[in-house]
Amino acid sequence: MEGISHRMVKVNGIDMHIAEKGRGPVVLFLHGFPELWYSWRHQILALSSLGYHAVAPDLRGYGDTEAPASSSSYSCLHIVGDLIALIDYLGVEQVFLVAHDWGAQIGWYLCLFRPDRVKAYICLSVPYMPRNPKMKPVESMKLVFGEDYYMCRFQEPGVIEEEISRAGTAEVLKKILTGRKPGPPRLPKENPFGIYPDNPITLPSWLTEADLSFYATKYRQKGFTGGLNFYRALDLNWELTAPWTGAPLKVPVKFVVGDLDMVYTTPGIKEFVSGGGLKHHVPFLEEVVVMEGVGHFINQEKAEEISNHIYDYISKY
């Protein structure tokens, strides 16, 4: 990726890899699962060419960033702590925040804990979901979606890692990245990823063999445990965030999602976003964009449009 530079920085007691390009106000990009800084390759080039300093880390546990062994080291306080240290390292008071999938959830936590450090937030795919003080999230998800719901299946250390190993790293990544099945996503005990060697997946135009190879190589080197530990800390996050129960998010927000997104098509989410629930908890929500015919990995599938959505929003500030 032409002109994108890389460095390792010490943040919050770990070594973090960041990819960056450009000069100007900082746009901080947070990736999701199972992704890397590389998910933002198109936006890094686009925003850096428009007068911004685009910065995309590999989050804790991913890619070339350090991966502590214990899942208790992956709480929202740890991850937000990493990001505050990174923002301090970059020498700026505030950043424009752009985030997707797990990165989006971490983005909401960053806005909740430290709204003073975020000038505006462009959130992709995952809306803010307020804490339910009456029930831990894993128990709640099992009740609503069943034991096979993917976040429930990710809980037991080593189990899903073994299933990924059996199915093949590249094949699993290809299946997840190209998936367009409506939510809620489930992983049955038999052939959880639905991979059939006699029915190979054809890559869409927005994901090349070289792209897939980049992801697969990094995940073969690193493994999936770091990323899965974000899910394994869900109940811990619930415990740690009790003081923020009912707290509004006081950051300007633009929310963008595809109408085929597995999160958006999970029962209740569409209604929450369009029916005023999201606006109630995020009072400075300024815009909601639902892109037709677009799946979950929106920043890669519709790279140019997402870059334009980002620039149109942050250029107002």
TrEMBL record:
| Metabolic or biological pathway | Secondary metabolite biosynthesis; terpenoid biosynthesis
Q: Which InterPro entries match?
A: AB_hydrolase_1, AB_hydrolase_fold, Epox_hydrolase-like
Instruction: Report the EC code(s) recorded for this entry.
Output: 3.3.2.10
Q: Which GO terms describe its molecular function?
A: epoxide hydrolase activity
Keywords from UniProt, A to Z, are:
Hydrolase
The answer to keyword Signal applying to this record is no
Record Pfam families: Abhydrolase_1
Record domain AB hydrolase-1: where: 25-298
What the record says about family reads: Belongs to the AB hydrolase superfamily. Epoxide hydrolase family.
Q: Per its database record, what is this protein's job?
A: Epoxide hydrolase involved in the biosynthesis of cucurbitacin and mogroside tetracyclic triterpene natural products (e.g. siamenoside I and mogrosides IV, V and VI). Cucurbitacins have cytotoxic properties and exhibit deterrent taste as a defense barrier against herbivores. Mogrosides are nonsugar highly oxygenated compounds used as high-intensity zero-calorie sweeteners; they also possess pharmacological properties such as regulating immunity, lowering blood sugar and lipid levels, protecting the liver, and acting as antioxidants and antitumor agents.
Q: Per its record, how is this protein called by name?
A: soluble epoxide hydrolase
Q: Which organism is it from?
A: Salix dunnii
